[in-house]
Write a structure and sequence with these properties.
20% strand; eight-stranded mixed beta sheet; single chain; five-stranded parallel beta sheet; 353 residues; Rossmann fold; alpha/beta
Length: 353
């Protein structure tokens, strides 16, 4: 078994200043702390709520821009971080300099039609755009991908995902009236992660529903991704398992022809307290835990932002998790909702006597 699995990306030798659009909790809890740990300079923040932007800028030692025009004045000399709701992406993408490097907060629009609009803007303006599906950059997932690439697991034939947690949906008031929640805003990370491992599926069978205890439209999902005759891939997602920590789960089992992996994503357990992530590998006769260099939050943001910056300064030739790639994750999400809306295959009635 490989013990020196890659869990991070090398920092670029140089970096460009970062301009952030948005001053919400994702910026203060993840983006700004991640940039500080990476040593990247944040040139400033723009938010329509000028008071909020000023308060966040003062707290993190940067400036608040009074307008979008001033926020984009650095031209191609900056990386633009669009940490804003999906509906705000098209207008901001239109305002960016032609050919700019940018990263958008997930999801890539609220549905596939919005993703279509975004990808057309990016293509027309020649934007080098990435989407912040950062789970694939978490230390556990980078290590897993490295083990797979080295052949430690052989050919991947099974992926199982199990989520049985008690998510406090009331913490996010904006979710109350959204028609799409669970798959679009949460399980989208798992779908993107699976695509990163297996590529695009042939199709999906899905059902997503709410729960009697919640007014949120959908909080529980079951999905089967079709990868043909040799790969089985299934997700069982329940955000309403409100019976204490003991049997909560947020885990993935990835099995190959030579070995297997187990991943625990701790951020969702006993939320918002959380627990450390875990990665276990079995490539012989027993399981061994791989010491991890961090968790999904916030270390995955470090990897995501590092790769964007490496591309921006010319140290990486390709932009991993680009908008072109992310469009396929959005297409999978759309297909899952379409599948859920259709009736299940009918079961034949008993024959007449």
């Amino acid at each position: 078994m490989s013990t020196d699995l890659r869990q991070s990306l090398p920092l670029p030798r140089t970096s460009l200043p970062v301009v952030i659009f948005g001053a919400g909790s994702i910026v203060t809890d993840a983006h700004l702390p991640a940039y500080a740990r990476l040593g990247f300079t944040v040139a400033g923040i723009y938010d329509p709520d000028q008071a909020k932007a000023a308060a966040v800028a003062a707290r993190f030692g940067t400036r608040a821009y009074p307008s979008v025009a001033e926020a984009t004045a650095l031209g191609l000399g900056a990386v633009y971080d669009l940490a804003v709701p999906p509906a705000a992406h098209p207008a901001l993408l239109e305002a960016l300099p032609v050919g700019a490097v940018t990263i958008m907060q997930k999801p890539m629009g609220s549905d596939l039609a919005a993703a279509d609009q975004i990808i057309r803007i990016c293509r027309r303006k020649g934007l080098n755009a990435a989407v912040n599906f950062q789970l694939r950059f978490a230390p556990a997932l980078l290590a897993l991908k490295d083990a797979i690439d080295r052949g430690d697991l052989g050919q991947i034939v099974d992926i199982d995902g199990l989520l049985a947690v008690n998510t406090p949906w009331h913490l996010w008031a904006f979710l109350a009236n959204l028609p799409r929640v669970e798959i679009l805003l949460h399980s989208i990370h798992y779908l993107d992660m699976i695509r990163d491992i297996l590529g695009n599926p042939l199709g999906v069978h899905a059902k997503t529903i709410g729960h009697p205890s919640s007014t949120v439209s959908n909080t529980r999902s079951a999905m089967i991704l079709d990868y043909g005759a040799h790969v089985r891939c299934a997700l069982s997602i329940n955000h309403n398992h409100s019976f204490g920590r003991k049997f909560q789960a947020c885990e993935f089992r990835i099995c190959g022809t030579k070995g297997a992996a187990y991943i625990k994503l701790g951020v969702n357990l006993d939320y918002p307290k959380g627990e450390p992530d875990e990665l276990w590998l079995n490539t012989g006769s027993d399981w061994a835990q791989i010491p991890l260099q961090g968790n999904w939050f916030i270390e995955a943001f470090l990897g995501r932002f590092t790769q964007v910056m490496r591309f921006a300064v010319g140290e990486d030739a390709t932009l991993a998790g680009s908008a072109e790639d992310a469009w396929h994750t959005m297409s999978l999400v759309e297909a899952a909702y379409e599948s859920s809306a259709k009736p299940a295959h009918p079961i034949k009635a008993a024959p007449d006597a």
